[in-house]
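Researcher: Last one for today. Full complex below.
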Amino acid sequence: MTKRIISSGRQVAPSRRQALRAALASVGALSLAGCDGGMKGMASSVKGNVERLNHVVHTALTGRASMAQEFTQADVAAHFKANGTLVPADADYQALLRGQFADWKLQVDGLVEKPAAFTLAELRAMPSRTQITRHDCVEGWSTIGKWKGVPLSHVLAQVRPLPNAKYVVFRCADSMESPSAGHDSKYYESVDMDDAYHVQTVLAYELNDQPLPVNNGAPLRVRIERQLGYKHAKYLMRLELVERFDQIRGGAGGYWEDNGYQWYAGI
Amino acid sequence: MNPTETIREALPADPTALRAAARRVYRHRLPVRLMHWINVVCLTILLMSGLAIFNAHPALYWGDQSTFASPWVAITAVRTPQGVVGVTRIAGRQFVTDGVLGTSKAADGGKAVRAFPSWATLPSLQGLATGRHWHFMFAWLFVVNGVCYVLYALFSGHLRRDLLPTRAELRNIGGSIRDHLLFRHPSGEAAKRYNVLQNIAYLVVIFGLLPLLIIAGMAMSPRLDTVITGWVDLLGGRQSARTLHFLAAAGLLLFVVVHLFEVVVSGLWNQLRSMITGWYTVPAERKGEGA
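Model: Here's the assembly. Have a good evening.
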């Protein structure tokens, strides 16, 4: 039981000692987990430890603030491939879309001193960053696009996260299963504060010098440039700062994570 | 070598068995045997989970990014009047690979549209997430095992003694090629050592193919790409790295196929026993064979 909490409420402060500990834990899990959870418990424990080992070793090797490669205008793909939800069928989103997102607001709350909501115009008026980066999908393909948006660090500075805020949870408008199914299947994602405050982490409202198309997440999507595509949540509605995410939905920190994918998608 | 050193068991009474026992040598030491079998497990799982991952987007490209309309390799299925047919496209040429690549037999007996067939992938049903978990876990084990092997080879003398060919062996490379083509396998003293083609194959795999495979694999990680921003360009970009990873894996598979073939034709049980217990029976010196 404790293992589950350790692996989902993880803290990232990488050091060589931690890397070693994670390595030993992966080996140890093979023998230990067999006792309490049977084969299934063992498998999920080993998976969690390997994922933690990847994260800790990558962070130790690259440093917390390492930069993703940026490209030139000549590298931008003629068509930026869209994946996942292409047009959210949800009625609330459809209403916002009809109003050209005039009524849309980004709610920022949770473990912050000053919860706030920002209109698209307000976000556009904030300092911006433009970057041409490569988008790597977990499926294996890559495509290069030019993004413009407000750095997430700037938005966080407005709401002042509390010291116990460890993750930013991105809440989205699109249901992954039929909205009429009755249960909440809205897309969501989460990142730790290293990625939240990373220079290239922006809330993008433009793709290739055009307002963000609906297929790519209008009106706002996040760019997490050192991780795979599924971390880059589209159709953002709300950012929630939390200390842990194991009580949210499936407990794994995101829609795809709840379906078996790694929370740490730097690989 | 003093022959009494190589005699392991009490001498049997039967003279043929006696001669065989006298030719028994301790050929593979425990660390090499152990690391060999760890490799077998790792490579099997890495190959099968790798194919499962590939199936999520069964196309390969060169460069930084995907040119979706023109991959240089694609395994896909096309609709024809006769039904769905599996095809593989390589550099603009199309091959019908129905039943194996593109389409294969589904669990219910019908036709499944999938790049690599379920018998070749881990998990057998479409499962990118599960395939990734298997792949990364055994990649760690494989790399740790590989590093241990290289260190062992360096410090135990295995590299110098067994892996590096001597000058004389290199000079006789033509003879070794001829022997291989005629399926003539070394006997007597020569059978105690790796032959020169074996040396070259092992060295190319250990110091060429495997490092390329691992580095190209790491280049696909968006986070590891940031170690030195832009280093992935040394491999020609991320999609080139994905292609190189695939080609290196194919090269490794080819090596394993040839390796298994050689094991079978040069004495399956003797070879298998020597990689399990370490003891190998040197084939008797053939008459009329010059040293």
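Residues 79 and 85 of chain B are 6 Å apart (CA to CA). The interface with chain A takes residues 53-54, 56-57, 59, 61, 64-66, 68, 127-130, 132-133, 136-137, 140, 220-227, 229-230, 232-233, 238-239, 242 of chain B (CB under 8 Å).
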